[in-house]
Amino acid sequence: MGFLKINDNIIKAVIFDFDGTLAKLNIDFQYMRKEVLRIASSYGIGPNLLKTKFVLEMINTVSDELNLKSAQESENFKKETMNFIEYLEIRAAKDGELFENTKKLLICLKANGLSTAVVSRNCEKAICLVFPDILKYCDAVVCRDKVANVKPHPQHLHTAINVIRASPPCTLMIGDHPLDIETGRNAGTFTAGVLTGHHLENDFLKAGADLVLAEAGDLIRMIK
Ligand SMILES: [Mg+2]
After folding, report:
1. How many angstroms is it from 67 CA to the middle of ligand 1?
2. Which of 57, 121, 126, 175 has the fewest C-beta atoms lying within 10 Å of its C-beta?
């Protein structure tokens, strides 16, 4: 059995982002944002406060705002937007696929005694469409539906870490977005960025990543 080490620290668990890290999904986030803004405006909420937020945070902000006046309006808005983003996620998942080395990597980590989990802001249905037997390869999947606060909030990562009985200082969080690095740093894990999404090495270094890999599959070669 080999060890995965980062700066002489032995890593016992690896937690993956899903989209862009283990699989290619092509979710149309621009359209998603545009449509959520349109739905918000149909509830009388303008775009001013929402420009810089990620979609899930936009939905929560609008929903909290609406809740000040009407719990029903807030609930309707949330239902309408969450249904819409789930529709886009599932549509993308139908054309999505795992990266070539994903299964090989997960098998290799397991064979070397490491625990694994996925933390994703995507819905569980979409992940299961792309990777139906994911739980044969990976110890836990924690999607947005399972936590009150999604990443970059550390609760999302801590939930996965607790499920697989790991501990933050022995865990590596790996993802294709600087937000994944922020999540790991917030949760007290080691972090790695991968270049299989839309971000460059420098984006990850700026975010404070411990390492940057061309792809998640490169971890296989790091086990010694
Ligand atoms: Mg991703």
Report:
1. 30
2. 57
Q: How many whole angstroms separate alpha carbon 151 and alpha carbon 122? A: 11
Across 54-58, 120-124, 184-188, least confident range: 54-58
Please give the distance, rounded to the nearest whole angstrom, from the Cα atom of residue 176 to the centre of ligand 1: 5
Distance CA 166, CA 114 (A): 10
Reported as a single tens digit per residue, the pLDDT across 18-71 is 999 999 998 999 999 999 999 999 999 988 777 777 899 999 999 999 999 999
The domain limits of the chain are 4-24+98-222, 29-94
pLDDT in tens, 65-94: 999 999 999 999 999 999 999 999 999 999
Q: What is the Å distance from ligand 1's center to 14 Cα?
A: 15
Buried b (16+ CB within 10 A) or exposed e, 140-149: bbbbbebbee
Cis geometry, peptide bond prior to residue 152 (ω within 30 degrees of 0):
yes
What is the rounded CA–CA span in Å between residue 177 and residue 88?
Answer: 20
For ligand 1, an ion, list residues with CB under 5 A.
Answer: 17, 19-20, 176-177
